């Protein structure tokens, strides 16, 4: 109850008891802890974190199978006389000037004559049987369900071969049989040296500079097969010749660095997937209007692929092995270039320079300064040194009393090593790189070692930045 007192009038007045304020200590502590957690979380989310990556040995497997287009020195030969054309030379056969290629049956009676004559048993020689067997085996190994049209090309090729063999046997009796008969035919001889092919596709005059992505759109590609014993008019296409053994295959490459690495090889061993044969090709690059193309030039083996415009090939390359690092960890850094004549190295690989400094009284003197070397360029005869000790304009002294002014700069490619808990730049030599990873040379003097820790993302660290182990 409240306290009661009498006032001057004798009335009793009741006073209210003051309420006591009780402070909840636990609630205050909870609020403080919650506020601290919120501040820490905000700082964590606003901070760029450094993720570690452990360097391992490895290699990069590259896709080395390409669909290439064949470029040859080809000439289309047209028919000088109308009539039924019968091939004598076999597709893929090399002919010289004056060799018989085909005959033209002007009367149209040659087939009737062949059927009416008894030419004896037509047996094949061992070479002819071997050629048939080789053609069939090559087709079986190279057949792909996605390219079913190749079945028809193979069918026409065999048909022409059979016709050629039959016509060749007929030639022995042709001259005597034609006399006194209704037959009228002409022999047609080659005007050039080359390899015979009985098809055309419009790419016979294709120039290397004209190659573009549309040339590889096989949905628009049309190949016309030329068949034996068909009626042909004057100036119609009869066959074509590949005039020399020098030929090329060309394929597009999107990765410019990869294309340059192929060019550095000079010559590349190429496996033709059609028959698994291998041949060395000379590498060239074509920088055409719509991209970069690799050209491989050969001086042999063309007759094995004279019936193909597109070829699947595999580049037989050595896979680069070394230290495998993420491409995101690679950075560039600028350094001073210091002439090696002004840098002293002791037996413990410690480097010093003799630099001009000023005393407190303003007088000049020489002082030895220790510094860290990041790379030595033998061609330049210079060390790469950062700006932690040296500055532009510093004067260095040589042992022969000459001087060197610090001013020239060079750039190194490297990563940030974080083994010691801080970001330490290390120079690297890249052997091969794609979008995700790079293979770098191992055990270099100033570079990385296997199992080193580096910053996964070079953009998240600065020089000498402290890196916590939690990261």
Give a brief outline of the structure.
By secondary structure, the chain is an alpha+beta fold. Helices cover 18% and strands 37% of the residues. The mean pLDDT is 82.
| Chain-averaged pLDDT | 82
Helix content: 10-25%
Distance between the terminal alpha carbons, to the nearest Å?
65 Å
Q: What portion of residues belong to β-strands?
A: 35-45%
Tally the helices: 5
Give the strand line-up of the largest sheet: 5-16-19-18-17-20
How many strand segments? 34
Which runs of at least 5 residues are low in confidence (pLDDT < 50)?
Answer: none
Largest sheet: 6 strands, antiparallel, barrel
- Find the structural class using helix and strand composition: alpha+beta
Global geometry: elongated
Rg (C-alpha, Å): 42 Å
How would you characterize the overall build of this protein?
- The chain is of the alpha+beta class and 471 residues long.
- Helix content is 18%, strand content 37%.
- It has a 6-stranded antiparallel barrel. It has a 5-stranded antiparallel beta sheet with strand order 26-27-22-30-31, with no helix packed on it.
- A hairpin with a 6-residue loop joins strand 30 and strand 31.
What are the salient characteristics of this protein?
five-stranded antiparallel β-sheet; 471 residues; 34 strands; alpha+beta
Topology of helices and strands:
Blueprint: E1 3-6, E2 12-15, H1 25-46, E3 52-54, E4 56-59, E5 65-71, E6 74-78, E7 83-87, E8 94-95, E9 100-105, H2 110-116, H3 126-142, H4 150-178, E10 185-189, E11 194-197, E12 199-200, E13 224-225, E14 230-232, E15 237-242, E16 247-252, H5 256-265, E17 267-272, E18 277-288, E19 291-298, E20 310-316, E21 321-326, E22 331-339, E23 344-345, E24 351-358, E25 364-371, E26 373-377, E27 382-385, E28 395-397, E29 403-405, E30 409-417, E31 424-427, E32 430-433, E33 437-440, E34 453-455
């Amino acid at each position: 109850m409240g306290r009661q007192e009498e006032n001057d009038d004798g009335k009793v007045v009741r006073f209210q008891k003051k309420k006591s304020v009780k402070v909840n200590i636990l609630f205050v502590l909870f609020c403080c802890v919650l506020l601290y957690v919120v501040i820490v979380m905000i700082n964590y989310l606003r901070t760029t974190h450094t993720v570690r990556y452990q360097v391992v040995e490895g290699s990069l497997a590259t896709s080395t199978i390409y669909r290439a287009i064949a470029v040859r020195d080809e000439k289309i030969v047209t028919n000088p006389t109308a009539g039924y054309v019968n091939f004598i030379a076999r597709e893929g056969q090399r002919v010289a000037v004056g060799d018989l290629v085909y005959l033209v049956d002007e009367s149209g009676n040659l087939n009737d004559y062949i059927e009416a004559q008894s030419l004896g048993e037509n047996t094949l020689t061992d070479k002819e049987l071997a050629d048939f067997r080789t053609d069939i085996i090559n087709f079986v190994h190279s057949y792909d369900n996605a390219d079913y049209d190749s079945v028809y090309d193979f069918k026409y090729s065999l048909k022409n071969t059979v016709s050629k063999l039959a016509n060749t046997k007929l030639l022995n009796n042709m001259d005597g049989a034609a006399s006194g008969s209704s037959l009228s035919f002409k022999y047609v001889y080659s005007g050039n040296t080359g390899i015979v092919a009985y098809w055309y596709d419009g790419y016979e005059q294709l120039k290397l500079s004209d190659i573009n992505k549309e040339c590889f759109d096989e949905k628009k590609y049309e190949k016309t097969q030329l068949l034996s014993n068909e009626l042909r008019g004057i100036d119609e296409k009869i066959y074509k010749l590949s005039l020399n053994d020098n030929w090329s295959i060309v394929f597009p490459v999107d990765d410019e660095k990869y294309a340059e690495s192929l060019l550095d090889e000079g010559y590349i061993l190429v496996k033709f997937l059609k028959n698994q044969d291998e041949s060395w090709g000379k590498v060239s690059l074509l920088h055409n209007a719509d991209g970069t193309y690799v050209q491989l030039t050969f001086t042999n083996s063309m007759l094995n692929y004279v019936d193909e415009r597109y070829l699947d090939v595999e580049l037989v390359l050595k896979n680069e092995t070394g230290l495998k690092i993420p491409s995101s960890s690679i950075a560039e850094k600028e350094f001073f270039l210091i002439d090696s004549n002004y840098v002293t190295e002791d037996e413990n690989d410690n480097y010093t320079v003799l630099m001009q400094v000023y005393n407190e009284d303003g007088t000049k003197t020489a002082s030895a300064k220790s510094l860290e070397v990041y790379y030595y360029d033998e061609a330049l005869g210079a060390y790469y040194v950062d700006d932690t000790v040296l500055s532009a304009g510093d004067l260095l002294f040589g042992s022969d009393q000459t001087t060197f002014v610090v001013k020239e700069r060079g750039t190194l490619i490297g990563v940030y090593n974080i083994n010691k808990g801080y970001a330490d730049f290390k120079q690297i030599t890249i052997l091969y790189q794609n979008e995700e990873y790079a293979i770098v040379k191992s055990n270099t003097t100033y570079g990385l070692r296997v199992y080193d820790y580096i910053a996964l993302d070079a953009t998240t660290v600065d020089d000498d930045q402290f890196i916590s182990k939690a990261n």
